[in-house]
Amino acid sequence: MNYVHGDLAKGRWNKFSLVEQMSNVGSEIFRTISWREKNKNNSEAAFFRALELLIFTLQDPKNKGGVKEIARVKEMLVDWYLGSRNYISTDEEWMKYFNQFNIAARLSN
Questions:
Q1: CA 43 – CA 100 distance, rounded (Å)
Q2: Which of 49, 52, 93, 107 has the fewest Cβ atoms within 10 angstroms?
Q3: What is the pTM of this model?
């Protein structure tokens, strides 16, 4: 399989804490939102990078206790960006959600 984040797919991702992983996912979601009105291709690329990082996060053995939440985040993000918006989430809600991980990641370093 071809990964955008090939170096992370080889195991480097698992060296990050869950907070750092989710913060990185959030960075891609922020890019998705930022590019949505300016350049659809860039927005879509950022979204799919975020999904790839979420898959890595789900596969990380140390995160097995949080798999349900991570899987729900993935499900809700797909609904928000590609789906029928059953969950009715907004850009602002996603920015608030992921901003908490950004703050926590900064405080932990």
A1: 22
A2: 107
A3: 0.92
- CA–CA dist 21, 53 (Å, integer): 8
- Identify whether 68 is part of a domain: yes
Structure confidence by residue, pLDDT tens digits, 19-60: 999 999 999 999 999 999 999 999 999 999 999 999 999 999
- Please check whether residue 97 lies inside any domain of the structure: yes
* CB neighbour list of residue 51: distance below 8 Å, 6 or more residues apart: 74, 77, 78
* Alpha carbons 97 and 93: distance in angstroms, whole number: 6
In a domain, 3, yes or no: no
The two structure tokens encoding residue 62: 């140390």
Give the residue numbers spanning the domain of 44: 15-108
DSSP structural state of residue 83:
S
User: What is the count of structural domains for the chain?
Assistant: 1
